[in-house]
Design a protein that fits this description.
single chain; globular; 277 residues; two-stranded antiparallel sheet; Heat Shock Protein 90; 7 helices
Length: 277
């Protein structure tokens, strides 16, 4: 009768020692012991997956941060070995590499802030945030020959205005740079339902497989490979969107468009009525 408890106890001790791959897999009929063992196995599986994800993230972040440092070291070595080299060119390259390192560091800090939910919540309107993000990125869209169309309803929710603006800006930036060469288009819309508000960003672009789309929110994943130029990202854009969405108790849905491109929908809880209204 106590054998199931002994197996669960042994598994608990192994997990406490750091072994998350062990599973109880209690045989026999379905009873309270079996239900407890199955729940413990499911918890171990989630913990193991989370730890593996964190390890991959740490390894990728270290690699991404090491790259600009290595480039900076190489440029400085070249300058030291060639005193007659044009310092203006060196200065320009060092500034570009340093700017990328700063962007990556700030993105990592933003991701950590969202994961920890260390922000002040206030009433915000997603439709106004979408308009602000659109106005900010309009010059980039014009440069890439992309038109942006906005529509929708007032969408009140509760959260960090700064983080939600960053989330929307990331979605819109991603939709602009991963688009058709010219002409491309982006549709931004907001809607309100019985218990939630929705922000949808849809863009034209290359055809994407469901398998590829399912990986786009993973840190340091890029849908079209590494990009160069003024719109090169650090590989954290959609990962930050996912983290901010989850920190606001929302859901993020990515789906490939049949004609090419991507449709991203963020669904957040609707704001409760304010006191006195």
């Amino acid at each position: 009768m106590l054998a199931p408890l002994a197996r669960i106890t042994d598994a608990t001790r192994m997990a406490a020692d750091g072994s998350l791959s062990h599973r109880i897999r209690l045989p026999g009929r379905s009873d309270e012991f079996r239900e407890l063992a199955d729940a413990f196995d499911a918890m171990l599986a989630r913990l193991e997956a989370h730890v593996a994800e964190q390890q991959r993230f740490a390894a990728n972040a270290s690699h991404e941060l090491r790259t600009p440092l290595a480039i900076t070291q190489a440029l400085l070595d070249v300058a030291r070995n060639d005193p007659n080299r044009d310092t203006g060119v060196l200065d320009e390259r060092l500034r570009a590499v340093n700017a990328r390192a700063i962007d990556l560091t700030e993105a990592l800090l933003l991701l950590s802030r969202a994961d920890q939910r260390s922000f002040t919540r206030e009433h915000v309107d997603l439709s106004l945030i979408a308009e602000e993000a659109t106005e900010t990125l309009l010059p980039l869209a014009e440069k890439h020959g992309v038109t942006i169309e906005t529509s929708g309803d007032i969408t009140p929710t509760v959260g960090s205005r700064a983080l939600l603006l960053q989330m929307t800006t990331n979605l819109l930036h991603n939709a602009i740079v991963h688009n058709l060469p010219e002409p491309g288009s982006v549709q931004v819309s907001t809607a309100i339902g019985p218990g939630s508000v929705m922000l949808t960003v849809e863009n034209t672009g290359a055809e994407l497989s469901p398998q590829l789309v399912s990986t786009l929110t993973e840190p340091f994943q890029r849908g079209a490979g590494r990009m160069r130029g003024d719109h090169a990202g650090v590989g954290l854009g959609l990962a930050i969107v996912k983290s901010i969405t989850q920190a606001h108790d929302g859901t993020l849905t990515l789906a490939p468009r049949a004609a090419g491109g991507l449709c991203v929908t963020v669904q957040l809880p609707v704001a409760p009525p304010r006191a006195g209204r």
